[in-house]
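name: query_chain
kind: protein
chains: 1
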Amino acid sequence: MSERTFEEHPHRTADTPGGDLVVAGVSKRFGGVPALRDVSLTIEPGKVHALIGENGAGKSTLGKIISGVIEPDEGTLSLGGRPLVLRSPREAIANGIITIAQELAIVPGLTVVDNVYLGSEVATAGFVRRREARRRFRELAHRVGFELSPDVRAGSLSIADQQKVEIMRALSRNASIVVMDEPTAALSDNETAALHEIVRSLARRGSAVVLISHFLSEVLSLSDTITTLRDGHLVRTVEAAGATEGSLIEGMLGRSLSSAFPEKVVVDPDAPVALEVDHLSAPGVEDCSFVLRRGEILGIAGLVGAGRSELARAVYRDAKVSAGTVQLAGSDLAGHSPHRSIRRGLVLIPESRKEMGLLMGRSVKENVSLSRLDLVSRLGWIAAIRERRAVSQLMQKTTVKAASMGLPANMLSGGNQQKLLFARSMMCSPSVLIADEPTRGVDVGSKRAIYDLLVEMAKDGMGIIVISSELEEILGLAHRTLVMRRGRIVAELAGDHMNEQAVLAAAFAETNAT
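structure:
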């Protein structure tokens, strides 16, 4: 891919601060709980500086301090040798610091071009020059390789396309420091490759890039320098050239991770059938059939848009089924109600915990008990003691870490939020669990905890379906793998035939037979 360059932003001035960004002795507490403890580091121009750590390690907090979103309780920042006090993101922008946040800051009612130039509109005498804005937008879109219409409402775009709008907004301002918090989490492989080239181009032209990412392969590929945080402390800062995934994991966890996945337990080929899907068709799903046995972990792989999540929702009865049947333990699962599926023992953990899973502003306790309030109620009233006891047991089983059950879900780390969904699912005592992207946005330590949990649930006789965009995750957990393409199951792989090459060949092939 050729090197891309970016035009100067008209609002940047010649005396915009540049040079080293120095973080000295920074600490931050939330409600008395330390998030950062005496952190010091230097971020140099022309380099990609990665911040890594488990969820809750403090990396996003540090990113927000650099971005002006929050102020430190102790410590200082300086830029180019000058003291830097940031009370808002606008002050950070004025100092050449731009953020691409993990939580998207899109204005849904505005067009794509208006979102890209929001706060830095192309204007003369107070009037926005829309034709000039579109021209600049198309040039920028061409340079970064994004195909977006400038006049589409941003709220109608997919999450991945909204992420592209955020990236273009940051790049349009020609920042000297760009903070990227999980920038590739919602992007496809091709889009991720394009973004990686943008990051390298930014560094080549002299900008400093602060990269916050859970993807260690991405960190090693892109970074010049890597800082590891653990429990709010800075563990070490090293040159990326001398680091490995193993050394990074050891720094993040404080111990080595001997194996990424638990040992697979052999499944009895004659084990009772937990779920049978026969010629199922629904929106995005065409004529799919498969069997899941008790104690089995069945992986579903495929490219983005292959129909994996659509199949999960159809089985769960969260989509209108046009043909075919679903049988749970030999009994037909009729109707179109997820509530009925839950009552029958089939539960689904959706791909987006924030959009489709948790009630982020409600308490940990409420999020867990929500799925089966009848179990903790009497005469229509919730029995508080019974609810607390049930939730406490499930939190222990799923290793959810929270200061209290009354804490809102949005105050938990991403890994604990994800484990909260598992606790809610187990509240239903399911016989079949469908986990769609069970470790998306989760650090390596929490990933292993979730993998252990899935394997233990399978050992207890539960049938489990795992849908994941991470092929390594499918191969590491599943006893069998179904590969989907264009809404169809095009291959079933097991044993020695279940490998990366076979899955990719089936996913990309024009025609396959099951």
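note: The chain has a mean pLDDT of 85.
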